[in-house]
Amino acid sequence: MMQFLRTVWLCSVLLGSIGVALPVVTPAALARRREAPKVVKVTAVTLESENIAGVWYHRLTGRLINETAQPARNIQIYYEIYAPNSNRIVDAGSATLKSRVVNSQAEAEFLIIPNAAGRVKITLVEWLSGDRDYRSHPQMQEFP
What's the rounded mean pLDDT across residues 98-121? Predict the structure, then answer.
């Protein structure tokens, strides 16, 4: 035990005499850390319903933006549709923008054919980033 304590003491003396340089954190670096992370997110959603010959058809259209510094591909959008007058989920699902690359700071449109109408909530957006790594953004945003 004494040998271990002597080794620790010797290391602390040597490191103290050499002087260890710690990185200086600049205000700009702190601001970059505090800013919101760059993600792919849905910015607008519209749910339209049409009655054709007694059958209801629904169309969910929307826009998304890639705020990241790299292109995003294979974007998958998860959604829930709630009944207009309650918090009951009447439909849920996902849609993938396959064979589509959304460049950095670019927008894209999507179309989903759901089975019901109501209030739309985008729950999650996933994408494959430029470095071939899957990323996600838990958006959890309700659109009227």
Answer: 92
